[in-house]
């Protein structure tokens, strides 16, 4: 039986943490586990704040220049190695066919989306991510996280919907094309260098806010620059 504290110790060496999980119900359409049969359990793996950033940068120094999707590659390498040591199958949000990571995360940690679409965490705010998941051929003994307070419910002013110069986030959804055009323009240099203004306007989880360098990295990935 996998002991989650041992798995957590392995992940901590890379700045990663277990992000909750659950056992699939009988008859549920679960993806294949390591044996090829439908998995019995899933454990999400991710980050709180910028904890993996320095680990990633150190790894990247040893990689060839121009490596495409370096953060995804690092995640596959690190989480894949942990999966091998614990008899699991590693899967990732960027892989096709896409797996329902957002739904898994809401089920595992009982989080709800913010107005920006990012799941709101009661401690980390919007400054967290899911980098992969581990599928097992057996059930896991996982605690029930309970239902955390959804911080957006008590936020009347919604600064996350009032800070973007082009109103990219609204009740109608995310204006991907408008955001991309602005961030790529000369006017969008602040967004490109310091990250999404709407996301940064959220007051929750400030202690976990990504540093500017990390936010700029993600913006470059978003714009393709």
Features:
globular, four-stranded antiparallel beta sheet, 4Fe-4S ferredoxin-type domain-containing protein, two-stranded antiparallel sheet, alpha+beta, 2 domains, single chain, 8 helices, 225 residues
Write a structural description.
This protein is α+β, with helices and mostly antiparallel strands. It has 2 domains: 4-149, no CATH class; 155-223, no CATH class. Helix content is 33%, strand content 16%. The chain contains 8 helices and 8 strands. A 4-stranded antiparallel sheet has the order 1-2-6-3, with helices on both faces. The protein has a two-stranded antiparallel sheet with strand order 4-5. The longest helix is centred in the middle third of the chain and has 16 residues, at 70-85. The chain starts with a helix and ends with a helix. 30% of the residues are buried. The mean pLDDT is 95.
E-strand count = 8
The assigned structural class equals alpha+beta
Give the distance, in angstroms, between the N- and C-terminal Cα atoms: 45 Å
Query: How would you describe the shape?
Result: globular
Largest sheet: 4 strands, antiparallel
Number of helices: 8
Share of β-strand residues? 15-25%
Helices and strands, in order, run as HEEHHEHEEEEEHHHH
- Overall mean confidence score, pLDDT: 95
Estimate percent helicity.
Answer: 25-40%
Rg, Å, rounded = 18 Å
Number of domains: 2
**What low-confidence regions span 5 or more consecutive residues with pLDDT below 50?**
none
